[in-house]
Amino acid sequence: MKKQQVEFKVGKSTLRGTVFIPNGKGPFPSIINFHGNGSKGKKYFEWGEKFAIQGYLAFAFNFRGCGNSDGDYLIQTHKDALKDGETAFKFLLEQKQVDAGRIGLIGGSFGGFIASMLLPEIKIESLILLAPSACTHKSSARLDEGGLKEEVKYFKNKDNWFNSKSYENISKFTKPLLIIKSEYDDNVPSDVVDRYFEQGFNSKERKIKIINGADHRLSETWMKDEAFEDMNKWFLDTL
User: Each residue of 68-82: pLDDT tens digit?
Assistant: First the structure.
């Protein structure tokens, strides 16, 4: 397995990430990761290395204003994040080792919302959403600010998320869908996550998995390990 540091342009901004390439000759089934709101996506880079050992080409990157990517997070909009995700997906397709007919996507929290919003624009064979968040058009002009307290307050108002376009997109998604949720999620309420599963009725295979004892960010090693085992098995069966 080898790691390749990469960068690509979105407008005037440079986004950075890592491509994890398995040993052997490609093309390889491939996985792209969308991390959560404002995070550095550290666990997605850790999982990328593990997926490469399992024979997948994996790509983890940072959205604008996050990690090593350019930009100021506090002035980014959801529209910016959608553009980042779409451009990152196109960048993955440009890699010669990628099997374009066998691509899986992992979206966590805000990244799960972005992944779902992009479904009409991208072609994937399998989707995993980790505690995905949601928001409606009226509430999505800016990235959320204010930390956990404001996020909890935000989700208490169903008008902010219940009719999100992301749920409509999931209802039209026909490929395999895995939802992973944390028992003690202190960011995204269970109802928000469950609605993705409920609306995924057209997926040819769908499953919801609860990681008992876990928090939203999967902050302990055992939580990340359990999530990886679930995801690895899912992609083994669906990619």
Answer: 999 988 888 888 999
Assign 3-class secondary structure to 209-234.
EEEEEEECCCCCHHHHHHHHHHHHHH
Half-sphere exposure of 151 (CA within 13 A, CB side): 18
The residues, any chain, with a CB within 8 Å of residue 151's CB and separated by 6 or more, are 144, 187, 188
Which contiguous run of DSSP H or E holds residue 103?
strand 98-108
Candidates 3.40.50.1820, 3.10.560.10, 2.40.260.10, 3.30.420.40; CATH matching 2-238? 3.40.50.1820
C-alpha distance from residue 11 to each of 60, 64, 120 (Å): 20, 11, 22
Q: What is this structure's pTM?
A: 0.94
* Amino acid in position 154: Y
- pLDDT of 10-44, one tens digit each? 999 999 999 999 999 989 999 999 999 888 899 99
Q: E-strand spans in 22-86? A: 28-34, 57-61
